[in-house]
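Standup notes, structure subgroup. Blocker cleared on the BJW input:
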Amino acid sequence: MSMVEIPEKLINLLRTARSVAVLTGAGISAESGVPTFRGEEGLWKKFRAEELATVEAFMQNPQLVWEWYMYRREIINDVRPNPGHYALVDLENHFEDFTLITQNVDGLHRTAGSKKVLELHGNILCNKCFECGEPYEGEVEIKEGEIPRCDCGGRIRPDVVWFGELLPAAAISGALDASEKAELFFSIGTSALVHPAASMPMAAKRNGAYLVEINLDPTPLSEMADCVFHGKSGEILPLIVERLKE
Ligand code: BJW
Ligand code: ZN
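Run returned:
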């Protein structure tokens, strides 16, 4: 993709905006080789993750849930950020006030060099206690179905947010603040189906932000977006950064 039409209004905002916020989802890591959740190649086609990413699943079959996370950790250990992640580092360096809100648990934004990152759904490489929530620094190996335990006796689990669980308070309040004050908001590579993450672009728009969506396909956000780029984030974001440097 060489020619992408960038609306005049967006070009102006790229020059003048002080406050910018971004929400990313699994799509931004797809070009790095991390499977998305939904869609044709989605993780959830092979693994019934609506059943795996829940507290109930862990209580019923912690070993199965752990196997799914171990499989995904192996993938994530082998991947590198892609041009989409790096373009967001350039954007952070360009704007006075820039917040990157991510639903991804893969840590690739930080690996790329982004500094102000709010991880709404946790980090798949970290562990905590299922009972008391204390971080667990030890190695996790699942041997013969035995799951390591915390000092309190609780089982160790991945430090991610499952359906029905509250998001980390600091991340969600930081995300909401950043969204409400953003003049320019980008929603990138997310199906915008999972709340409260999907409410962030809506909050931004409600507060007057210019809303840009980058996605392969339309989403529930597309209709309210001021500008929609249909394509790969790893191709479109670098083109936007190029315009900013002109
Ligand atoms: C590309 C591309 C390329 C591909 N370039 N694009 C309000 C209304 C309705 C329901 C609720 C609500 N508030 C809360 C709920 C309940 C629930 C919810 O949202 N349910 C909906 C599904 C209906 N939310 C929760 O339970 C949340 N907790 C909560 O709200 O607590 C309070 C509460 C509890 C109960 C009731 C009410 C309030 C917690 C949500 C936790 C989500 N956790 C997961 C798993 C994390 C751990 C793990 O990784 O295993 O997070 S689910 C999964 O979905 C993961 C993701 O972060 C999240 C979002 O997915 P994402 O990133 O959008 O990925 P995909 O695959 O869906 O989309 C990829 C997109 O990329 C696609 O659009 C592609 O086209 C595109 N793409 N390649 C650009 N190269
Ligand atoms: Zn504990």
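Discussed briefly. The domain at 8-34+81-121+166-245 is CATH 3.40.50.1220 (Rossmann fold).
Next: hand off to the docking folks.
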